[in-house]
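Appendix B. Chain record.
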Amino acid sequence: MSLVALPFYQKRHKHFDQSYRSIQTRYLLNEYASRKRASSQASAQSSLQQRSSAQGASSRSSARGATCQLCAKPVSASEEEEREHEHRYHSQAAAYGEAKRQRFLGELAQLGESVQRARSQARTALDQCSLQHSVGDRLEWERHALEERMSRAPEILVRLRSHTVWEKMSVRLCFTVQGFPTPVVQWYKDGSLICQAGEPGKYRIESNYGVHTLEINRADFDDTATYSAVATNAHGQASTNAAVVVRRFRGDEEPFHSVGLPIGLPLSTVIPYTHFDVQFLEKFGVTFRREGETVTLKCTLLVTPDLKRVHPRAEWYHDDVLVEESKWTSMFFGEGQASLCFSHLHKDDEGLYTLRIVSRGGVSDHSAFLFVRDGDPPVTGAPGAPMDLKCHDANRDYVIVTWKPPNTTSESPVIGYFIDRCEVGTSNWVQCNDAPVKICKYPVTGLFEGRSYVFRVRAVNSAGVSRPSRVSEAVAALDPADLKRLQAIHLEGEKEIVIYQDDLEGDVQIPGPPTNVQASEVSRNYVVLSWEPPSPRGKDPLMYFIEKSAVGSGSWQRVNAQTAVRSPRYAVFDLAEGKPYVFRVLSANKHGLSDPSEITAPIQVQDSIAVPSSPGRVLASRNTKTSVVVQWDRPKHEEDLLGYYVDCCVAGTNQWEPCNHKPIGYNRFVVHGLSTGEQYIFRVKAVNAVGASENSQESEVIKVQAALTAPSHPYGITLLSCDGLSMTLGWKVPRFSGGSAILGYYLDKREALHKNWHEVNPSPVQDRIFTVEGLTEGLLYEFKITAFNLAGMGQPSDPSEHFKCEAWTAPEPGPAYDLTFCEVRNTSLVMLWKAPVYAGSSPVSGYLVDFKEEDGGEWKTVTEAATPNRYLKVCDLQQGQTYVFRVRAVNASGPGKPSDTSEPVLVEARPGTKEVSAGVDEQGDIYLEFDCQEMTDASLFTWCKSYEEITDEDRFRVHTEGDRSRLYFVAPDKVDIGTYSVSVSDTDGVSSSFVLDEEELERLLALSNEIKNPTLPLKSDLAYEILEKGQVRFWLQAEPLSADASFRFVVNDREVSDSETHRIKCDKSTGLIEMVMDRFTIENEGTYTVQIQDGKAKNQSSLVLIGDAFKAVLEEAEFQRKEFLRKQGPHFAEYLHWDVTEECEVRLLCKVANTKKETVFKWLKDDVLYETETLPDLERGVCELLIPKLSKKDHGEYKATLKDDRGQDVSVLEIAGQVYEDMILAMSRVCGASASPLKVLCTPEGIRLQCFMKYFTEEMKINWYHKDAKISSSEHMRVGGSEEMAWLQICEPSEKDKGKYTFEIFDGKDNHQRSLDLSGQAFDEAFAEFQQLKAAAFAEKNRGKVIGGLPDVVTIMEGKTLNLTCTVFGNPDPEVVWFKNDKDIELSEHFAVKVEQSKYVSLTISGVTAEDSGKYSINVKNKYGGEKIDVTVSVYKHGEKIPELSAPQQAKPKLIPASTSAE
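Structure tokens predicted for this chain:
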């Protein structure tokens, strides 16, 4: 918030505060209280007087005698005394009270007198204080009035004005201010105070009689800013500001305006009151997009002054129509930019867009064209979408839809259109017409009254249907005549009512007939009838029925019998072409039909408009580097034209492309987006609702180049030398020549601070260096230069710096000049300059090149040592960075004055950069070639060697044709090795170079020699081929030969002719030459040569077959001959080979051929017949032998033999060594792929990890890993396997055996692995199971058992002695018990049991009897358990036949658990 001094008039105003109001209130209250007390005292005195008089009268009456006041009778004496006594008492009390009151009144009167005196004193003091305040205010008022008359705050009378200037020009900002005391003025640049001492000579500030001036000398691009001036004195401050825009001429800009389109924009109706200066800093250019894409047109602005709440108005125009925001477009204006955004482009959006900034200061505008190409069609070859869809003449059930046709330059013509409608709020599109309509207008009927609709159109051609057009604006199906039938009736006062005219018609039931029936539109496909509603029409809803009649038929046919028409117009279709019709209309309501209307005149369907005629002469003229202006004569018949389509074609290609995708309504168009230097042809066609006209005649061929204009201004004026009386100046060629060669320069001069310029040279100067004579020593001069060409004089350059005319005497050289750049690439550039004019005290010995980034930083020297050349290639630059350079010449005295800093150079290769190429032409001449499509008529190719222009015509020849130039070497030699460069003038620095080294020169010389001394090209050199029968074919293929071509075969320096032993032939159409030798023997060793000649071209090719090379050919030929003979009988088409099946079986395979029924096939192993289960099927041609579970026992030599009466053949395969190892690896591949996951099996010995697979053998290369460490087989970890699996036995596992285990099998290429993590719960469970199994195994090992000796059945004759003996084992020694029939045997002489050494046990039965037959059992047990064995004893008597029993077997024990044994 700014601080403002309190105005003087506010000081005179009394602001009563709270304390002051309290004093006044107390004063008023005191005065009121005193007056109240006085009035109360007066009333008290009057009441006392009245009471005293009443008491006197009563005393007198009492003296006369008392009388009763009620009955007026006299009272007795006693009563009277009593009353008197009572009266005295009351009178005494009253007297005491009166005295007391009098005393109080006296005190009160004294107090009032004292208060009155205090009030009088206070009033006197207040009056004195008020008088003092009045006098003070009067004096202050007079003082401020005097100051007001004498002083004033700063007031700006003339404000600053904004400027736009070119670089190197001076800017002068002025404004006028008044005020007293005199204001102090300070200048600011973008809010920063300008200090003259900070940049001496840059700013000059002056102040004369209230006019203040800021002059910016030789403004540069960095001076673009907002400048403010602030004037301040004791009474306030005032400020003004203005914008200064310094424009830098860019090389890619052209100093002329492109030809615009003939579009006039309407004047703005409302202009903002405030004056604004508007400068366009960045503008949108010509834009190319496709349908469906998004684009934003944006301009960056500088608006002065920049007010927060007040802005100029921004308006966008499409052609000449003001653009409003919609769902397709959005606009933004603020923050220094204005933009127009398209969210979804259609061809409707194509056109010229203009941004207008409107203010009181005027209108600033910018225009550019937006091209919108067709989107991808749904079907290849389909036309583009129609555009500009509009709805007309909407009614209750009827609307007319119109559109513009698409351009079909490369597609087949449009044969019609489909119209679709969609009710607003839904997404259901309904096709309105069954057959395509051929004109761009269609009446849509069948709408529902009161509903809103949108429409779209699709074009149709022979390829298919196009994309739909942009959706139309919504239109409501309402009758506009309803509003006309409304009538307002005014009542009394200001009241009125609105009624329909139908309400005034009375009671009308059947309506009248329609009137004024006519054909409002006639076409080939339909007739649109319109009429006026009947009058009277009645209050009920109306319907219409249309009837038609062919002229002369006498019969009427109702057209809309199925559907009633509610609108007063109707489109009648399906009329016969060439036949006239008449029509009439009937109106109807619920009460009935009216009479028919009057009959129309005869109407015949026909096109009311015809296809327009083709436009007239087409003229194309140059505009810019990428655009051409096309103008044409309007067609003779241009009724109802919708516009024109322009097509272009590159000359000589006949491939036409559309230039615009929306019809333009004027006969001039600027075609953009063309290739610079390319030649084009143009044509135009007119379009209307019926279709497109024939193409106009083609324009003449035009080359795309910029139009011829005056050149731009020269720049870079440099002082090169001065002797005190003259100055030598140098300058740079204008960046833009105007399309024509620059013919010369004019120089002007003036002394510093002088306004008038003086001509230096009356005649033009050709060179860019000139010595100005006749100068005065010690004075400052400035110069400007103007270039001219065929188009005229260009703009003069900016004034140079102030050069002082004083003689140069320094020993160091002067500045180099004319710094130019070429071959700018992504990280390098080539820099050129000219030697200084002033050499100093000794000759120039070299140059130092310095560079730095444009934004700042210190100068860096490219090379430490000075370069003797006047060019240097600077490398290792940062791509996309801008640099500036300077050059310092060096002589014996040291580096001299640096050159002027070069213009900034952007290190980045131009798009489409081309390089110099080397080649040899048809005559064998070596050349360097370069082409430039950006050249103009004024462009010249300059060829240099070592960056010095080539002038030696004895060694070089330059040939330029069109945009291509060649540098020919007259007599190429090693002296021509070096760096060659070419540059193209009047372009944006197009240049390139080529390093011709010794290797490249030799390549070009060899190619030149081939062309001058032609060699017949060969597709292939002489080669040989062994044929099936052992024949040797020598062949060679050249390019196709002519009929006159000749050739010959030479073998060992002797020509060979065609014979039975040497069959020679030649196919000249293919260039194939061959010789076939039936029998190739040892005598054919030597050199083979083929010599060919076709016109001047010759060639030969040789093949040397000597030594090892010949032996190889001979052996191959002999082998092929034998093979041929072998194949005459049964033979092996494929020799014996092997593979491994999915079941991991080795299969031996061979293929046989040329067999018959009698052919015998055999398998042999080691020359022994190998029997197979199935005989080979020779008809199938494949014989197999399976070897399951391959092992070393299968080693041997396997043979397959074929034999019949025609011969025999043998194939051998030996399974051993490497073959056997390969088979194992192949089996490993199958097994590894089929291997199961690792599984855990617990045993009494430990934990076993198993991997099951189809087959396993120990010869497979397997490995086990524990925690990624390879396991070697040991007592603790044993590795083994069986045919079904591989296993790892962990004996006596412990905690250290926990971890991840991996099984790996190698198949020669890949490792197949299976892993298992044996830790945590998995290990604990396995270890617990192992402990159980180990304990069970130990118990099984040490329990009581019968080792052997007892049979299961014993047969013995009665009377014999039976001895059952067995061996027992147990640890500890087991207990042995014998049973008979499961009962203990009581020992006696008959039964005797004997145990020896705790191991041998016997049961002896002496004198066996029949009662001894039965089941005998032995129980052997200890604490770990035991077993029981039963023996059946059968006793037969003497003389009886021995029972037939099966052969005795070892008795089978029955286990006794440990728990049982422990009991």
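Further analysis of this model is presented in Appendix C.
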